[in-house]
Amino acid sequence: MSRVFICNKQIVLSIGLTMGYFLYLFLGAVMFQLLEKQAEADSRDHFQMAKLQFLQNYTCLDSKALEQFVQIIMEAWEKGLNPKGNATNPSNWDFSNSFFFAGTVITTIGYGNLYPSTVAGQVFCVFYALFGIPLNLAFLNLIGKALNTHLVALGKCVRDTDNARVLRILVMSSFLVMGTLFFLVLPPMIFSYVEMELWRRVLLCLYHSQHHWIWRLCIGDGPKQTLHLHLSQSGCTLDNLRPCLVGSRL
């Protein structure tokens, strides 16, 4: 009876932690969207006005005016705006991008030049990470323990068979092939559908598989960039599970 009660308690705690984790991401996405989207729209309008003024007066352009316009372009780029675009470009702080950014904050992945530009957004980001990172570790530990339970059962099955050595080699080979396929072969093929060159796709997959990020390898402004956002976070989240699995195994 007590064993059934403990089992039910663990299930309830697991479901509660999972729901709390995604609710925390949802609330973070809503807050980042509220704090940053209007500021981004104002910056976009300001840049478009400066761009129009430049186009109207380019015939009398001098070095000072050119430096001023370059400075405006740099400020727009630092705020995540595409200088080649127009006012109808998708927002960097709609709900899907805000949800993705919230995920990169609590998983400590980070992502390129997407960051809050307002003081309120930056302050909220600090406290959001302060409480979100421990929640993320608890969630990954829960997943790691669940996976480890099945891996231990699989290990017992391997040891109990007559051809344990052959089966062990087969399992290791399967993991190697699956890991190479899902982390180094399949992602570059998907990225090629999005927008990147071959060498950049492979290098980006290597960086993400090692839980690193590099600013120069961030995606551009292609219409299918959302594919990469979800792939990046999924790959790094799976990579985060390795310490959980090792720790629970020990």
Short description:
The protein has helices spanning 2-56, 63-78, 95-106, 119-160, 164-194, 198-209, 225-249. The chain is mostly helical and 250 residues long.
> Beta-sheet strand percentage?
under 5%
* Model regions low in confidence, pLDDT < 50 over at least 5 residues: 211-219, 223-250
- Gross CATH architecture: Orthogonal Bundle
**Class by helix and strand content?**
mainly alpha
Helix content: over 70%
**CATH class category:** Mainly Alpha
The count of strands amounts to 0
The name of the CATH topology is: Helix Hairpins
Order of helices and strands: HHHHHHH
Question: Could you please describe the fold and organization of this structure?
Answer:
By secondary structure, the chain is mainly alpha-helical. 77% of the residues lie in helices and 0% in strands. The chain is elongated, with a radius of gyration of 23 Å. It has one domain: Helix Hairpins (Orthogonal Bundle), CATH 1.10.287. The protein has seven helices and no strands.
